[in-house]
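User: I'm new to structure prediction. If I give you an amino acid sequence, what do you actually give back? Let's try with this one:
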Amino acid sequence: MEEDCSVPELPPPSAKGEAQVEVLTVNTTESILEYLRKAEAGELTSDGRGYGTFTRVAFMMRAYDGSLFPSYNYRYDDFVDALAVMTVTGIDGETFYVGEPENGKTARYLQGENSTKKGTSLVPGLVNIAAFLAQAMTESIIHDACDEFNAQPLPNSTDDGIGLDDGIDHFRFPISNACGQNGRSYQDEQCNRPEDRMYDCTTQLNSEEFASMEITAFSQSRWPGSPGPLYCGPKTM
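Assistant: Good question. You get back a string of structure tokens that encode the predicted 3D arrangement of the chain. For your 237 residues, that looks like this:
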């Protein structure tokens, strides 16, 4: 909107890319995986950065000094293997959406004068993958972690009876961090959807299956002197 409250005319839609106009001849999952293969191999005409392009965009970790390296835990090959399973088989009936499957249904083009023309496009699947990876990059990949870090130190105090009472408690990380950090208490949090209640801590704490379980996280911070991974077990321990 302009300063005089008028609404400028929108520019015409940009030209469709190859993935938007192509009507797929094989099922959507295979087409998506082939497109990702071309991206990683540097074979897309829109990108001339060569082999490993997808890895250098989506699967990079940040070291404690700010430098970027390919992730140790998140790799392109593992991602496409998992994607192939999640788009077809899924978990508990839930699958990752990459467009309409090969079952007679069709998706619509997203823009332009042919928007009512039916045909299966790669765009919905690629957009969904991009959104998923954007969240994964922010929460996990950039930290090269698949678990929560032990990250909240004790507050500084000279009279709390902890350690040497030297006022440098920010070097001490309590084991209770595994039960919640930054004001959260995981055992008191519940899932909103009834079908997800089986996964929340309140349900699991009352389950014989989990009552005696012990688990140690896989990930820990990579900065020098960082605490070990979080551990959780029965309160009797």
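You can read the tokens as a compact description of the fold. Here is one thing that stands out. Residues 102-118 have pLDDT under 50 and may be disordered.
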